[in-house]
Amino acid sequence: MIVVMRIGASEADIADVIEAIEKEGGKAYVDRGVERVVIGVRTDRHDLSPDAFRMLHGVEDVIRVSKPYKMASREFHPSDTVFTVRGVTFGGKQVVIIAGPCSVESEEQIMAAARAAKAAGAHVLRGGAFKPRSSPYSFQGLGEKGLLLLAEAGRETGLPVITEVMHPRHIDLVAAYADILQVGARNMQNFDLLKELALLHKPIMLKRGMAASLEELLLSAEYILAGGYGEIILCERGIRTFETATRNTLDISAVPVIKSLSHLPVAIDPSHAAGTAQYVPSLSLAAIAAGADALMVEMHPDPATAKSDGLQSLTPQAFADMVVQCRRVAEAIGRSIL
Ligand code: PEP
Ligand code: MN
Fold first, then answer.
1. Within 6 Å (CB) of ligand 1, which residues are found?
2. Measuring from atom 3 of ligand 1, which residue has the nearest CA?
3. 234 and 267 in contact (C-beta within 8 Å)?
4. For residues 235-258, b (16+ Cβ closer than 10 Å) or e, as one string?
């Protein structure tokens, strides 16, 4: 449930409410909005009545959160979640651009990608080291060597890095190199992985499963929030539909829908949606126009030789041209790309 404070409620009122929540065995999450303070109450007690807090001084209303996900909901936390990873702010006015190859393949490849990403204005470098491939015979990633090369490329260019973690056993290893840990579409409902990641206290990008509803995505985010960690980016990357002209169908509605249901920042991955580089710029512009907080784009120094997802990877030049256009769209809707 949430306790909505009156406009102008004092700090003493807020402290009294927090004390009352804790006395009832609950945990209080204070959200200081522009107008008023809202206090989320997390409790396992089903018998706890809103009346326990309604009569306290400064309280305007106490509301039960109607959604199956609680802490991920906008009701629980009305203002946008904004957080900064090594100088890059997610969920704010700036649109964040994440770029890099599908997989880290060699020092030369990831360094060239990192330099091209940086030169074009990207803020975060991506690169997979543990790859979830459909076929066991496909390139599975370089593992720890890939993490090391990615981190080095990030250090050289000053870009924070994001990479996927597929197994709970690899969390500490991946966390030693990555600034943001990515949970891939295929693992969105790997609940043990989500529970373990919550304990890590490092930023997480949670990708929507290719056959998952937005409610299921938010429930997966709830696993991490309920585990005590809140710096989560939700990423739409295309879903399976009857359409075969693209690899997946980008659900652009995911942006305004998630933004209305949740306070968490939303990213779009146009590359895994399109499946073909040609369509990536249009989807990226649409994502920014729709209000996405971040874009994650696959870009490879030489897409024709890529060990994974070359077809959907932009060349450095195509990526740079796209960023110029993205900037214009961002500005048109009152945001910006630094
Ligand atoms: C990726 O981003 O490298 C990836 C494998 O994406 P997804 O999990 O969305 O398929
Ligand atoms: Mn890929």
1. 102, 128, 132, 164, 184-186, 207, 237, 269, 272
2. 102
3. yes
4. bbbbbeeeeeebbbbbbbebbebb
Write down the pLDDT at residue 171. Answer: 98
Please report the sign of the dihedral spanned by the C-alpha atoms of residue 223, residue 225, residue 227, residue 231.
positive
pLDDT at position 14 is 97
Q: Over the stretch 214-262, which tens digit does the pLDDT of each residue have?
A: 999 999 999 999 999 999 999 999 999 999 999 999 999 999 999 999 9
**What residue has token string 């260019």?**
157
How do residues 67-82 score in pLDDT, each as one tens digit? Answer: 999 999 999 999 999 9
* Residue 280: both structure tokens together: 């990536």
- In the reported structure, the alpha carbon of residue 165 is separated from the centroid of ligand 2 by a whole-number distance in angstroms of 14
**Cα-based torsion angle of the residue sequence 321, 322, 324, 328 in order, rounded to the nearest 10 degrees:** 150
CATH topology of domain 83-332: TIM Barrel (3.20.20)
| Helix, strand, coil share (%) of the chain residues, nearest 5 | 40, 20, 40
Tell me the best of 164, 217, 283 to mutate to test the pocket of ligand 1, counting ligand atoms within 8 Å of each CB and taking the most. 164
Q: Domain coordinates of the chain in residue numbers?
A: 2-63, 83-332
Strand pairing partners for 205? 182, 233
Nearest CA to ligand 1 atom 8: 184
DSSP 69: -
CATH class of 2-63: alpha beta
CA Rg, the chain, in Å?
A: 21
- If residue 146 lies in a helix (H) or strand (E), which one and from where to where? helix 144-157
Closest CA to 150 of 166, 133, 173: 173
**pLDDT value of position 33:** 86
pLDDT per residue over 85-142, tens digit each?
A: 999 999 999 999 999 999 999 999 999 999 999 999 999 999 999 999 999 999 999 9
pTM for the whole structure:
0.95
Q: What gap in Å lies between CA 228 and CA 210, rounded to an integer?
A: 26
